[in-house]
Amino acid sequence: MRTKSVGKKKINMVTLGCSKNIYDSEVIMGQLKANGKEVEHEVKGDIVVINTCGFIDNAKQESINTILEFVEAKNQGLVEKVFVTGCLSERYKPDLEKEIPDVDQYFGTRELPLLLKALGADYKHELVGERLTTTPRHYAYLKIAEGCDRPCSFCAIPLMRGGHKSTPMEDLVKEAEKLAKNGTKELILIAQDLTYYGLDLYKRRALGDLLKQLAKVEGIEWIRLHYAFPTGFPTDVLEVIKDEPKVCNYIDIPLQHISTKLLKSMRRGTTKEKTNALLADFRAKVPNMAIRTTLICGYPGETLEDFEEMKAWVQEQRFDRLGCFTYSHEENTHAHNLVDDVPQEEKERRVEEIMEIQTQISWELNQEKIGKEFRVLIDRKEGEYFIGRTEFDSPDVDNEVLIKGTDIYLPIGEFVQVKITDATEFDLFGDVVE
Length: 434
What we know:
With 434 residues, this protein is α/β, with parallel strands linked by helices. The chain has 13 helices and 18 strands. Helix 8 packs parallel to helix 9 and helix 12 (304-317) packs parallel to helix 13 (344-367).
């Protein structure tokens, strides 16, 4: 067994799940650093803090496996302490304490001061907006609200994150200014629901106003919208996207399904007709906007007829970006009262069919880009290629632009003008325009 170090203990922050968890980990790390702690993201450390995801079965299993892996490392003397926080811990704390007792302590999503105390640190209120970012310097996530008030039948997020709570606009502008001073050029706005922003604080949907304020921040050049709920979408936001050059012509709007019968069962507050009208409005007001969506296959009661309806709709809409997931039967959700009647194999088959259609659509849309020029933000270099993105692409989930770097040097985090010369289903190839 390793002898315990006498000097300063290094804390290893491990993040699982979505970009909202990345943001939360950055806040924890910022607080720890301000307390004089040595903290790093996903490197070896004496103390491990695991920020878990509890959204669907696969994510829960990954979180449990990660906890068990570090508990085993602790038992072997490779780490001294293991702490667990985040959504899984919020949702299943009593079960986890019973089943994996070797974890030193479990914390919920709203227990940051207690977690810091366990790590020998104090929560500093004056650090609101301060984070130790884990993304490349030139882009950062900006979480504009916490929790969710939506009643979606399949979703456990309100159980783990509580009700919707908007962050005041002035705090977000200050945070954006700090990020910009550190070299951030792209802000990716995230929340469980961007559409609801401001209703609790200002008694109105204020996302459009927030975008205008953030666009004034010097140094910020791109602002991107993720996770906008379709029902009650504030259409003034479309005017801001169209008129404000800094706001990317891009939106991530999870639609989940198109069958009115299933949308009703999912408690989405919309219908096929309303959804199609909203998409038509998007395209009429911002004709060159890239629309990303996510869909669920195998929701309880989804017949082959419902699935065929969704397939035909995907072909008709030709979304720029699309992700598809199998339905996960989550306890304590409204849908858990329904019979999970689509076999797992059939759910997966349906996902594959949708993604085959989308892959073909993506290839066709990318072919149309050949010969055109785009402003590209360079993210990294891999092998002989510099890799970047257009305003129509978010990091990690969307298309990338590959530029051969054998005879050229491109600074990471800078913008270049690129002419597209070739394209595959999910990648564009291009040359820098002098």
